[in-house]
């Protein structure tokens, strides 16, 4: 279907069903809210690292079976896939929620703090899972209104498994194991907790709180290609008093690290986003000995895939040139990670009216893309996707900690907004896609 036709069909069809359906859903969401809070706190107290989500997956599967869903477990490790068949035939739409936590020690003082010391839901996946379970319950209780089917994907290992893990994981492995088939979704939605946003058109590096009850979105690129690299510089050991007899790997590495930054500042179109960050460096044996080898590692973030490949070529050119100039050598291992999420323009524009009627125009905010990585992108490569942000902050209650920090938390009123927005997006799409 052509994008413009897609938008017009979606808008015209959805307009006829929105108000009455929203009112019915709101009443149900208000009634289930205490259970949503209880579920979120249970998951928050019992966080599990990537590929260890056994308890969370069992909780999810049990809830879905109780609702009468067709449930498949053990997908990509501890993933759960469930299908809800609506009251009439139609298209299929998917909802994705990630379940894993982070290796962070929680510093908050809430009564639902992590009981698994050193592990914390610092990225809000407890909220994501709870919202998806809430949507599943809501739509199951009103399945007569569902014109098609809804596939729920509860995903393990979004945060990536430990460095010692070999093989694929998370969304990519779920796709490989058929999670997006039988039936194949015609669209997929996902959300992420966001205490902070950078509004589109804002000046400089401005960040604002995204409060519970607010939603944010991008059109097109939403997250970055998230890659990692490891470089080994080989020199020649010599006494520090006679550096001319060796090749100082530390000096070569220092020059190389500085030169890599020039790729961004001097070799890249200023309109093309790029981050090259060196995060670790190790080398040397003693203060009076030239280092024979130095290793450093970092990350590269881009949006555009061909541009990313060009950056890799430039990195090799810089490293080779500097090493050749000083008589050193290098090896670089470059690992391509999660691809950039590209939100489907027509799907976004067709869904925004649902968000605006639920929370009001001023509470639906366009933002600039993030440079973080997210493997929802693998699902969005199979079907048109829309990945949006769910506000979770509440300054009056002191809930302002950022994601991936020990002080992260969420105003649980966001659960109502998350369930309502996701359910409206799903139902509007299915109504329009008949």
Describe the overall structure.
With 434 residues, the chain is an alpha/beta fold. 36% of the residues lie in helices and 23% in strands. It has helices at residues 3-15, 18-45, 54-66, 125-141, 170-176, 249-266, 305-326, 345-359, 376-380, 414-432; strands at 70-75, 79-85, 88-98, 147-155, 187-194, 196-197, 208-209, 215-217, 220-221, 225-234, 275-283, 293-302, 329-335, 342-343, 364-366, 385-391. The strands form 4 sheets. Strands 1-2-4-3-5-16-8-15 form an 8-stranded mixed sheet, with helices on both faces. It has a 4-stranded antiparallel sheet with strand order 11-12-10-13, covered by helices on one side. Mean pLDDT is 94; it is low at 11-16.
Layout of strands and helices, then pairs:
Elements: H1 3-15, H2 18-45, H3 54-66, E1 70-75, E2 79-85, E3 88-98, H4 125-141, E4 147-155, H5 170-176, E5 187-194, E6 196-197, E7 208-209, E8 215-217, E9 220-221, E10 225-234, H6 249-266, E11 275-283, E12 293-302, H7 305-326, E13 329-335, E14 342-343, H8 345-359, E15 364-366, H9 376-380, E16 385-391, H10 414-432
Parallel strand pairs: 3-4, 3-5, 5-16, 8-15
Antiparallel strand pairs: 1-2, 2-4, 6-7, 8-16, 9-14, 10-12, 10-13, 11-12
Helix pairs in contact: 1-8, 1-10, 2-4, 2-10, 4-10, 6-7, 8-10
